[in-house]
Every structure is written in structure tokens, then in C-alpha cells.
Amino acid sequence: MADFFDLDGVKYKIADLSDNGRNILDKLTFANLKIHELKNQGALLTKAKNAYISDIKTEIIQGESGIDFNDLFDE
Asked: Are 5 and 25 in contact (CB under 8 A)?
């Protein structure tokens, strides 16, 4: 673990914290990690959603036109 932590652009010594302060810092670190993980998961789900939207649009167009676009682009 690092010797310092940054809060609002100011560095503080972890050793200067009480046990309760270190416990709070651990919880803050965990919360920040979870936020980062959830943002990444949200980006992944957004990418999947956009792919599903594209696939369903293709499916609708194929149903209305009777043209299989996969056959057009496959060799």
C-alpha cells in the first residue's frame, strides 16, 4: 500500500490517520474501485446494446425486403 493518499489534490500521510481513518480510507478506495469497474461494465453493455440494435435493424430490413444481407457480403 502507498504511504500517501490524495484527497482533492492534497497529499496526506496514511500513517497520520487513526485506525478509524484508515478504515474509512479503505472503504473509499473500495468505492472508487467499484465505480471504475461499473463504468467499464456499463461501457461494455452499451457496446453490446448497440450491436443488438444493429442486428435487429438488419433482421427487420431482411424481413421486409426478403434480402439476406449475409449472403450479399459472404464470398
From this structure: yes
Distance CA 6, CA 63 (A): 57
Write the CB contacts of 2 (distance below 8 Å, at least 6 apart in sequence).
14
Ordered mean pLDDT values, 10 residues apiece, the chain (75 residues): 89 97 97 98 98 93 78 66
Q: Tell me the C-alpha distance between 42 and 21, whole Å.
A: 31
Largest pairwise CA distance in the chain:
72
pTM: 0.68
- 34, 21 Cβ separation under 8 angstroms: no
Residues 58, 71 contacting (CB under 8 angstroms): no
